[in-house]
Design brief:
The structure is a single chain. By secondary structure, this protein is α+β, with helices and mostly antiparallel strands. The protein has three domains: 201 residues, Transferase(Phosphotransferase), domain 1 (Orthogonal Bundle), CATH 1.10.510; 91 residues, Phosphorylase Kinase, domain 1 (2-Layer Sandwich), CATH 3.30.200; 123 residues, no CATH class. It contains 15 helices and 13 strands. The chain has a six-stranded antiparallel sheet. A three-stranded antiparallel sheet has the order 7-9-10. Strands 8-11 form a two-stranded antiparallel ribbon. A hairpin with a 4-residue loop joins strand 3 and strand 4. Helix 5 runs antiparallel to helix 7, helix 7 runs antiparallel to helix 9 and helix 13 runs antiparallel to helix 14. It is globular, with a radius of gyration of 23 Å. 53% of the residues are buried.
């Protein structure tokens, strides 16, 4: 049986370096010293929330990676405090599968995090270069991620953003990167209710719906990653981030073998459990997931590489691709979201349309029933009163539990099979259009982040609220959205073209819901 380490090396063999692939890191002239000891040298990558630098620790004489929080977040005292708390918590966890956090601090009002500098390839780079992986390599990588999650979850940390760009393959090792949006279990009260951090293509249904993330959320995200390693594309793709998150909540991607025939049935069963809509239906823990099909036997009795070997501090470091870290339209409190999502859409990398949901039944959202008497509102009243078609949400199907472990030999690669993604119901389509108008408004300086945050908080229950709320409740929620728009527009927080496009989008949403 092939060692996990050798399978990972095989997965990364021949993959071009960051520079050779055209991802030249940006050299920075001059230098800045953080905390009196960390000399920033060059930008390794940027995201919506922070910039990661390669730096030199003058005290210990070593190269490190320093994550510097973006000014828009550093200016928020609550967010900056949470960033610092989570840095301290992450620093308390040490494991070969987790990137080590060395230090954290605040320099001239800017929070920063100091981490080990790792040389290797991200899983994102491997998949972009090589496409679907042999089943054995995919299993080996997923098992390594599970081992890291075991340690993090045992320490009370939830990552909340497991995705290929945050999984490093270095010298036969798997390492989980970027606990920068991780949170400590039990600190939810310190975070704005409903705040969702994550990337839509790998976002759990509960996160998309604005509920707290837990260890099971990381397992769902791992299921999305495993699905992509096996098929070459994530479980779901869509034209917008909101539509993508909507599919995470309501659609069934079908088994990986439907896109890549020949995969072991046990991997279909494992991904079905990892991608269960209800957290309680997923494996009880990362350890439980790893004990099944991910428990790959190894020569010499060592399932994973031994304790962390010396890591090479080379010049080829990961280039963090800008990806959306927050799903703005889905949360009840989206301060961080507005600053990221509304600043511009991130990379959701649609690698091809996902197949239509299989084995699902449609249920009608009560929001589409006739509403209470119309409330007059000149700015947002639809031009036509024609009832919108009923918005439906497919219910998740029940799939078989995990049985036997996967076959040791990887099946012959088969091109991923795709089908046209199912059309979104009118409510979700209208909500996505509203998000697009708010994105454009923020980008043009016509919608303030505060206004965007508040409108999103009113949109969330309309789109992801419990089924069957009744027409009266739906009318009430929509009226609150309209009133929120009125308030922000009257206060000058929505101006210019946005003062026309946003109310029109709200009106279209009302028409889709069957309310006014």
């Amino acid at each position: 049986m092939v060692l996990i380490a050798s399978r990972i090396r095989s997965a990364t063999k021949g993959v071009r370096s960051v520079d050779a692939a055209g991802g030249r890191v940006m050299a920075v002239t001059g230098s800045r010293v953080l905390g009196g000891r960390y000399v920033l040298a060059e930008v390794l990558g940027t995201g919506g929330m922070a910039t990661v630098w390669r730096a030199h620790d003058q005290v210990l004489g070593r190269e490190v990676a320093v994550k510097v929080l973006s000014q828009q977040f550093a200016a928020d005292p609550g967010f900056a405090d949470r960033f610092e708390r989570e840095a301290r918590h992450a620093a308390s966890v040490s494991h070969p599968r987790l990137v080590t956090v060395f230090d954290s601090g605040i320099d001239r009002g800017t929070p920063f995090l100091v981490m080990e500098l790792v040389t290797g390839r991200t899983l994102r780079q491997v998949l972009d270069d090589a496409g679907p992986l042999p089943a054995g390599q995919a299993v080996a990588i997923a098992a390594g991620v599970c081992e890291g999650l075991e340690a993090a979850h045992a320490a009370g940390l939830v990552h909340r953003d497991i995705k290929p760009v945050n999984i490093m393959l270095a010298g036969g090792e798997v390492k989980i990167l970027d606990f920068g949006i991780a949170r400590a279990d039990g600190t939810a009260a310190r975070t704005a209710t409903g705040t969702v951090l994550g990337t839509p293509a790998y976002l759990s249904p509960e996160q998309a719906a604005g509920h707290p993330a837990g260890p099971a959320s990381d397992l769902y995200s791992l299921g999305c990653v495993l699905f992509e390693m096996l098929t070459g594309s994530p479980p779901f793709t869509a034209e917008s981030q909101l539509a993508l998150a909507y599919r995470q909540v309501y659609d069934d991607p079908g088994p990986p073998s439907a896109r890549r025939p020949g995969l072991p049935a046990s991997l279909d069963q494992l991904t079905a459990r990892l991608l269960a809509k209800a957290p309680a239906a997923r494996p009880a823990s990362a350890a439980a997931a790893r004990a099944g099909p991910l428990a790959v036997p190894a020569q010499g009795g060592t399932a994973l590489p031994p304790a962390t070997p010396a890591r090479t501090q080379g010049s080829r470091q990961r280039l963090r691709r800008p990806e959306t870290l927050l799903t703005a339209a889905l949360t009840a409190a989206l301060a961080a979201l507005v600053a990221v999502l509304l600043a511009g859409p991130g990379s959701t990398r649609p690698a091809g349309p996902a197949p239509a949901a299989a084995g699902t039944t449609a249920r009608t959202h009560a929001a589409t029933r006739p509403a209470t008497p119309t409330r007059t509102h000149a700015a947002t009243r639809p031009a036509a009163s024609t009832p919108a078609p009923a918005a439906t949400r497919p219910a998740a199907s029940t799939r078989a539990p995990v049985s036997r472990p996967p076959e040791s030999a990887a099946p012959t690669r088969t091109p991923a099979q795709t089908a046209t993604a199912p059309a979104l119901p009118p409510t979700a389509t209208a909500a996505a259009a509203l998000v697009g108008n708010l994105q454009a408004g923020v980008a043009d300086g016509q919608v303030t982040q505060q206004a965007g945050q508040d409108l999103f908080s009113h949109l969330q229950p309309l789109l992801f609220g419990p089924p069957g709320p009744g027409a009266q409740q739906t009318q009430k929620q929509f009226t609150q959205l309209v009133q929120a728009y009125d308030k922000h527009q009257s206060q000058g927080q929505i101006t210019g073209k946005a003062a026309t496009t946003v109310p029109k989008a709200i009106a279209a949403l009302g028409a889709a819901l069957g309310v006014h």
